Amino acid sequence: MENEKDYRTFLREETSKLLEGKETEFQNMVVEHVGNKLTPTDGKVTAEMVLDTLAEEFPDVLLIVAEENYIRGYADGINENLKQQKQENE
User: Fold this and answer.
1) Which is more confidently placed, 44 or 67?
2) Rounded distance, CA 64 to CA 73, Å?
3) Within this chain, do residues 46 and 69 fall inside the same structural domain, yes or no?
4) 84: enclosing H helix or E strand
5) Which residue from 58, 29, 55, 32 is spatially nearest to 45, judged by alpha carbons?
6) Are residues 45 and 79 in the same domain?
7) How far apart are CA 64 and CA 19, in angstroms?
8) Which of 25, 61, 65, 78 is the most exposed place for a label (fewest CB within 10 A)?
9) Are 78 and 42 in contact (CB under 8 A)?
């Protein structure tokens, strides 16, 4: 469990770094909504909080994103395998 906690902390920190300075009006609306709904004690809204709220309020949208992510990952895996087989046959 300790490794999972460390990984989650790392992921949270890296996600926050990616989002810094790239604010849009929509992002601000989402963060404000999630902040008002969950009222985090430190006043910070994390990507995990946004995803949890999205899963609760818009499960169909999140399911579509998850399906697309799965399909792309599967396709990438197949392409990598084919590429590796081609290299081995050369």
Assistant:
1) 67
2) 14
3) no
4) helix 59-89
5) 32
6) no
7) 22
8) 25
9) no
∠ CA 9-10-15 to the nearest 5 degrees?
100
Cβ(12)–Cβ(47) below 8 Å? yes
Global confidence as pTM? 0.60
90, pLDDT greater than 60: yes
Inter-CA distances, 88 with 22, 30, 74, 82, 83, Å: 43, 48, 21, 10, 9
Q: Dihedral sign, CA of 71, 64, 66, 16?
A: positive
- Cα angle value 13/19/20 (rounded, 5°): 90
Task: Write down the pLDDT at residue 78.
Answer: 93
44: its two tokens: 């910070």
Say yes or no: 53 and 63 in one domain: no
Q: What is the DSSP string of 7-59?
A: HHHHHHHHHHHHHTT---HHHHHHHHHHHHHH--TTSPPPHHHHHHHHHHH-H
